[in-house]
């Protein structure tokens, strides 16, 4: 199966009130685990690699891994570049074969954000690659992107229609109370703000920072029309936690890397399957 784009996945999700799960990976094992979980849920899935992950794995190697996974997948797979701020790198990723990218110009002024996001969207269109952008600033830490101020970063609903129209993007990440990474206290989502945004645009809306938000709150967002939910930190914790456990449990003389790494796939798959079921995406492949 060929890689698909956000345009192939999100309009239906928005229309039928489920969300497509987007999951960060940092290597082969967690990438395979994500796909395994999606197949177990019979759900479409978005495999996300950050700019840092691509630099760690290798850009073309990242594409090769996911194209190989997608080739024999029973569910649609999208390869998405997450939170990229280096525009030359984004263009290289598009040319390398990513089927979707996120340009993050959210730290720029509104007019600059529009101009720079539009430039990437125009470029991506030549490669049948979808584009997500961000308006407002989602808090927390994502790779080398740190946003400290919570309330000042919220998306202004009235800014959305012009932004979507002029950029020509396929999905919009908005800030309404979520953060990247683990939460220090229970998150308080601004549902009224999300509702106002959803009423002002048909563009699929994305929730970043899905780890740690109560499932009931995410499901409320999905019922309102949210179409994509990003999850990353929870998978990192499962990956490292599984390795730590196995290092303590396996015999000291065990040196076969597969004995350590195979369980990682299962741990990641279990989380992905659970999330996709909670997002209402199970059976939507």
Q: Care to describe what's here?
A:
The chain is of the alpha/beta class and about 280 residues long. It has one domain: Alpha-Beta Barrel (TIM Barrel), CATH 3.20.20.70. Helices cover about 50% and strands about 15% of the residues. The protein has eleven helices and eleven strands. It has helices spanning about 5-15, 30-40, 50-55, 60-70, 85-95, 110-125, 160-165, 190-200, 215-225, 235-250, 255-280, and strands spanning about 20-25, 45-50, 75-85, 100-105, 130-135, 140, 145, 170-175, 180, 205, 230. The chain has an eight-stranded parallel beta barrel, surrounded by nine helices. Strand 6 (about 140) and strand 7 (about 145) form a beta hairpin. Helix 10 (about 235-250) runs antiparallel to helix 11 (about 255-280). It is globular and about 60 Å long. Residues about 145-150 have low confidence and may be disordered.
Mean pLDDT: 92
Structural class: alpha/beta
CATH topology: TIM Barrel
- Rough shape? globular
**What is the tally of helical segments?**
11
**Largest sheet, spatial ordering of strands:** 1-2-3-4-5-8-10-11
What is the CATH C level class, in words? Alpha Beta
Keywords, please?
285 residues, TIM Barrel, eight-stranded parallel barrel, globular
How are the SSEs placed, and which strands pair?
Elements: H1 6-16, E1 20-24, H2 28-41, E2 45-50, H3 51-57, H4 59-71, E3 77-84, H5 87-96, E4 100-103, H6 110-125, E5 130-135, E6 139-142, E7 145-147, H7 160-167, E8 171-174, E9 179-180, H8 191-200, E10 205-207, H9 215-224, E11 228-231, H10 233-249, H11 257-278
Parallel strand pairs: 1-2, 1-11, 2-3, 3-4, 4-5, 5-8, 6-9, 8-10, 10-11
Antiparallel strand pairs: 6-7
Helix pairs in contact: 2-4, 2-11, 3-4, 10-11
């Amino acid at each position: 199966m060929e890689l698909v784009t956000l345009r192939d996945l999100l309009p239906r999700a928005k229309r039928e009130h489920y969300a497509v799960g987007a999951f960060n990976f940092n290597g082969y094992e967690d990438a395979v685990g994500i796909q395994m979980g999606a197949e177990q849920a019979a759900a479409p899935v978005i495999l996300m690699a950050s700019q840092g992950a691509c630099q760690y794995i290798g850009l073309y190697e990242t594409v090769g891994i996911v194209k190989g996974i997608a080739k024999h997948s029973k569910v649609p797979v999208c390869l998405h570049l997450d939170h990229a701020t280096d525009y030359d790198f984004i263009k290289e990723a598009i040319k390398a074969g990513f089927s979707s990218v996120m340009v993050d110009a959210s730290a720029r002024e509104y007019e600059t954000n529009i101009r720079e996001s539009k430039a990437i969207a125009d470029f991506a269109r030549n490669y049948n690659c979808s584009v997500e952008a961000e308006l407002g600033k989602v808090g927390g830490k994502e790779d080398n992107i740190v946003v400290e101020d919570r309330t000042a970063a919220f998306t202004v609903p009235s800014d959305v229609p012009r932004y979507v129209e002029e950029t020509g993007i396929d999905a919009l990440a908005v800030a309404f109370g979520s953060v990247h990474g683990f939460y220090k206290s229970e998150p308080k989502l601004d549902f009224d703000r999300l509702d106002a945004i959803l009423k002002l645009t048909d563009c699929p809306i994305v929730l970043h920072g899905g780890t740690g938000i109560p499932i009931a709150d995410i499901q409320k967002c999905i019922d309102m029309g949210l179409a994509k939910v990003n999850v990353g930190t929870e998978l990192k914790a499962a990956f490292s936690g599984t390795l730590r456990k196995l290092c303590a449990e396996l015999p000291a003389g065990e040196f076969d890397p597969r004995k350590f790494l195979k369980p990682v796939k299962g741990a990641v798959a279990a989380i992905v399957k659970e999330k996709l079921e909670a997002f209402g995406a199970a059976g939507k492949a």
